[in-house]
## 1
Amino acid sequence: MATAGVLAGAAFGFVAARLAKSYFLDVKMPGALPVALSAFVLLAAAVVASWLPAARAARIDVIQALRSE
């Protein structure tokens, strides 16, 4: 899901930058390095945000959790 969001955001950002460039002469397209670095940071944050709760849930004993309900 995070990868789809990064790809959709990159596509929308490219279109928005091209549109802005047609209205404003000083608008420049960003380089590949800042775009790739920000995509990497966003994907890394998504992995950490989903891995930590999954790791915590994996440590719970299912039978004991069901019995306590």
Note: The mean pLDDT is 87.
## 2
Amino acid sequence: MILLVNGEKLEIVDGANILDVINCLENKSEFFAVALNKNFIPKSQYVKVQLKDNDQLEVVTPHPGG
């Protein structure tokens, strides 16, 4: 299936969850938040939320210094 992750297309296996996508990304920061189709998802739900074709994920990390 194809997802849009931070504005870029990502092909991932059917049935993947948010944690599967996080593990594919190069961002290894321990501090980040994830929005699925513009709704923030709690970390406790990353394994439970199964993604669908054309879902949009935004993975954001804080940057010090505002």
Note: The chain has one helix and five strands.
